Amino acid sequence: MEGESKKKATFNDYGFMDLIFSWSIEDILDEEFYKNKVEKIGLSFQSISQYLGSYKYPILEETRASLSSSMEIIYQAPYGRVTGLKLAKPFKNKSDNEMDKPLKNKLYNLKIDRWENRFVLRGEPYKTLPGDVLVLADCNPESANDLQRFSRMWCFLSIVKTEDDNDGENINSVCFKVTASKDLDLEELRYKSLYIVFLTNVGSNRKIWTALHMTSGNPKLFKQILCNSDDLCWCCVMCPFHVRLESEV
């Protein structure tokens, strides 16, 4: 890539990141957290909404499991020492007005000196992307237990926008905009040594989650895209099992 890389995540994710931010470490490590929520997906449904809704908890469970796996090997994860952290201005639209649907959480500008353990991902150097979930902590954790120790400060971060200068040979500085799972006391944190640790990227699951909520608009068009119709049912052509969506009378 040439020049500066600027990538920004979408705003409306229908509460996906809010759900992730609400999880505790215990929730993430609990393999039975969604045990009573994830059910076998059937082959027939009463409506499009029921069909799409049947995939919501499986997506959340897949995300939880990915974070849990990352927590177990957090000592191997890419990490960096924070050299700058301050409140950022809200994103604005083309008319220079604040967005109609602003981010729920505050936006921060964050800078680190460099990434360590950058080559643990399939031999390729790690590079921050929108959708990355990281941990911000006042230590460089070797395990999830390190984050749970008394008086430790930590929270989740989500990369919203990257402004990378590591496309060339200079990989000593990385800057990006993030949201945090809680409001940060910047005055207190300025006296602490802070680190960020990469966990996983949830960009794909967030897109799927968003798609599962997009039931508004023209329902006939939606069904036409999703299904083939006959006198008895809607047969999903996107599903290898040809899921049958019963026609609504």
Would you spell out the secondary-structure blueprint of this structure?
Elements: E1 5-8, H1 16-22, H2 25-29, E2 44-45, H3 48-53, H4 56-72, E3 79-87, E4 107-112, E5 132-137, H5 144-147, E6 154-164, E7 174-180, H6 186-189, E8 195-201, H7 203-212, H8 219-226, E9 227-229, E10 233-236, E11 244-246
Parallel strand pairs: 2-11
Antiparallel strand pairs: 1-6, 3-4, 3-8, 4-7, 5-6, 5-8, 6-7, 9-10, 10-11
Helix pairs in contact: 4-7
Pfam families: DUF6469
InterPro entries: DUF6469 (IPR045529)
Protein name: DUF6469 domain-containing protein
- Cα end-to-end separation: 53 Å
Which spans have pLDDT < 50 for at least 5 consecutive residues? 1-5, 94-101, 165-172, 228-238
Using the CA coordinates, give the radius of gyration.
Answer: 21 Å
- The gross shape turns out to be globular
Counted beta strands: 11
Compute the number of structural domains: 2
**Largest beta-sheet details:** 6 strands, antiparallel, barrel
Work out the helicity level. Answer: 10-25%
Backbone structural class = alpha+beta
Proportion of residues in β-strands: 15-25%
Q: Helix segment count?
A: 8
* Helix and strand run: EHHEHHEEEHEEHEHHEEE
Overall pLDDT: 78
Q: Going across the biggest sheet, name each strand in turn.
A: 3-4-7-6-5-8
What this model shows, in words?
This protein has 249 residues and is α+β, with helices and mostly antiparallel strands. It has 2 domains: 5-42 and 56-210, no CATH class; 217-246, no CATH class. Helices cover 24% and strands 25% of the residues. The chain has helices at 16-22, 25-29, 48-53, 56-72, 144-147, 186-189, 203-212, 219-226, and strands at 5-8, 44-45, 79-87, 107-112, 132-137, 154-164, 174-180, 195-201, 227-229, 233-236, 244-246. It has a 6-stranded antiparallel beta barrel. Strand 10 and strand 11 (244-246) form a beta hairpin. The longest helix is centred in the N-terminal third of the chain and has 17 residues, at 56-72.
